[in-house]
Every structure is written in structure tokens, then in C-alpha cells.
């Protein structure tokens, strides 16, 4: 039994400091430019690949940290550097988690390396679940996957939206309906290998924040993938569908599905990203408040300003603790009986939005300009109450978990 400690171990401190160096020296100086350009920051991703930060090896190592803190420590530091660039580097991770949570060992070994490529030939991956009419309401998904038994191929047809790296990724993980009668229990995840005919990028979105991260529609027009691209395999799917049909016949619950398993696993990691943005904005505000003089004294001498900073710091630390708790629970096999993963994402996302707004206020007029980074951080933070389940949906998940009532 591991001893309880709030201290990071030597390895974790080493990783944190190494990423902090990359965030400070490579990401921060490039952040404003890529935010303005609104393009995928290939040079920064390649730089991360060159030092091993954008690599399967590195993420697998962090993912396997027995304390669970490898991933949150990594992501907090990366997103402290910049959220748009951070997501351009970390976006592949969501698709990789999709394969880790639903795939067989063989599928993990085949596809995850192809999602990252190597330092000389960097690859990306995308996780495609959301659709124009199925955002929070995952059960409304329409993209169909039909099995062509004669050819042992699945045929995918539909339109996905809001996909991070959608259309520019080498490997796409697509969630689709295999049995419409079963609602979200009738979903399955598929790998769409590189250069598969029929998959194309639709609209690329122009966004409020995280503008260096590519977000687009993905159109699937009769995309044929081999049978082995069904994550988990056909046998497991058939068993799962049979159980779901039995439960449905008895009027049982709708249960978990492939996309939900991915989101549950990724929520604390998304919370860690939000903590990184909030900490970055707080640090800028603290420095500014110490040096900006009005009425003959630094503005931090006013309780009105200092108390805001005290609240900001307290919220950030509380958010980090929730993220670390959920990450530790996941790594040590403790189920999220009270939706602790959702709690961490909800609180950290709301914290990032609030703290970056407070930071902008503390910087006054300067905070509102692009001369200072806090307005970008505030724009970036806004997505953290929306994607990977909105704050309202996190509250729904938590409320259901703690009450046992199927609250709508
Ligand atoms: C930049 C960006 C990147 C993204 N990346 C990905 C990705 O890589 N892969 C992917 O699959 N998806 C991705 N998404 C999609 C994201 O997860 C969805 O936008 C999100 O789940 C919300 O869905 P929606 O936009 O359709 O909003 P809607 O579901 O239409 O919600 C609209 C509003 O209604 C509220 N609402 C809805 N239902 C309820 C309810 N039952 N109770 C209370 N309030 C409710 C919501 O909280 C929200 O405030 C991304 C989105 C963005 C903007």
C-alpha cells in the first residue's frame, strides 16, 4: 500500500520541470503568433516531437504512472505554456485514450504508434463523436456503421462535427451507431486508417479561443474500413449488444457506451489543462498587481485586489486537488461512484473561466489588449465549460451519481 503523500516524486518533478522549460522557452514566445494565424502550429509540434514530448513513449509512460499524476502534471505545465498550442500537442491524446479504453492490446499496439508517428514524420489523430444534432445528447447520434459480412468490412456514413484535428489527422477514431434501437448502447468505435477513401474534412471552424488547435467537421461518405478496425472486436461487440438488448427488453438502464468511456477517462486530464490556464493568468495578475502603481501605491495594497488574488489562488489549488484525486482514483482502480472525474472537470473548467476574467480585471485596460496574454487566456479558458461535456452535463452526471435519481 503506497503511503499517503501530497509531494510529487523525483520523476514527476523532473517531468514537470522539463515541460515547464519547453512551455516557457518554446510555447510562450510562439503563442500570440499562432493564436493570430489560427493554423496548426506544425513547427511547435515538431519541436515537441524532437525532444520526445510529442511521442507515444512519453505519454504511455505518464499514463502508466501508478499514482495517476503523470498526465495531470504534464498537462498543467503544457497548458500553462499556452492552451491553443497545448491542445495542438495534446489533441491526439483523446483519440489515443479512445483506443486505450475500447481497443484490444493488438489494436493499441497497431494504431496508437501511427497516431504519433516519430520525430522525423509527425502524425496526428482525431476523436470524432459529436455531430450537428448530437452534442450533449450523444444518444441522438446518426452516423451509421453497417457490417458488410461478405467483405468483412464496416461501412461508415454520416457527418461528425467539432473534431479536434478532424480531417488533418492521419488516424480518426469514429463513434457510430451499429444498432439504432439501443440508443447510446448501440454505439461502437472504429479506427479509420490513414488515407481511407470517403473521409474528408468539412468546414473548419473559426473560433473564439484555442485558435492554434484545428477544429473541423469530418464527412464520412460510405467509408469502408476492415473488420479489425472495430475497437474491441466483433465478438465483444456482439456480446455487448446481446446484453443491451436483454436489458432493454427488461426496461433496464441505458448504461455506458464507447464515447462515454473515453470521456470519463479523459475528464480529469481536461481539468488539468484548465488548471494550467488558470495558473498562468493568476501569475500574470499577481506580478502586475505588485508593480502597477495607482494612488501612489501598488494596486495589490488594496484589499479589493489582494482578496481577488487570494480567491483565485485558492480556487486553483482546490481545482488541482480535485484533478489529482480523480486521476489517482482512476490509476488505482477506484470507481468514480460520485462522478469524481466530472467534479474535477466541472470545477477546474469553471475556475479557469472565472480566474482568467479576474486576471483581466486586475490588469485593467492592459488586460483587455493583445499586448498582454490574459485576454487570450480568457478566450482559451471559455472552451473548458463547453467541450468534453458542458458544465451543465457534468452537473447532471454528478447529480445522478450522488442521488441515484435519473435526473433530466
Ligand atoms: C473547440 C472544440 C473542440 C471540440 N473537440 C471535440 C472532439 O475532438 N471530438 C468530439 O467528439 N467533440 C468535440 N467537441 C464537441 C463538444 O464536446 C460539444 O460541443 C459539447 O459536448 C457540447 O455539445 P453542443 O455543442 O452540441 O451543445 P448542446 O448539446 O447543443 O448544448 C447547448 C447548451 O444546452 C445545454 N444543455 C444541453 N442539454 C442539457 C441538459 N440535459 N440539461 C441542462 N443543460 C443542457 C448545454 O450545457 C449547453 O449550455 C469540441 C467542441 C469544441 C467547441
From TrEMBL:
Family, similarity comment: Belongs to the acyl-CoA dehydrogenase family.
Species name: Streptomyces netropsis (Streptoverticillium netropsis)
Stored PANTHER family: ACYL-COA DEHYDROGENASE, ISOVALERYL-COA DEHYDROGENASE, MITOCHONDRIAL-RELATED
UniProt protein name: Alkylation response protein AidB-like acyl-CoA dehydrogenase
Keywords of the record: FAD, Flavoprotein, Oxidoreductase
Taxonomy of the source species: Bacteria, Bacillati, Actinomycetota, Actinomycetes, Kitasatosporales
Stretches assigned to the Acyl-CoA dehydrogenase/oxidase C-terminal domain: 253-402
InterPro entries in alphabetical order: Acyl-CoA_DH_CS, Acyl-CoA_Oxase/DH_mid-dom, Acyl-CoA_Oxase/DH_mid-dom_sf, AcylCo_DH-like_C, AcylCo_DH/oxidase_C, AcylCoA_DH/ox_N, AcylCoA_DH/ox_N_sf, AcylCoA_DH/oxidase_NM_dom_sf
Domain Acyl-CoA oxidase/dehydrogenase middle span(s) in chain numbering: 126-223
UniProt cofactor(s): FAD
Domain of life of the organism encoding this protein: Bacteria
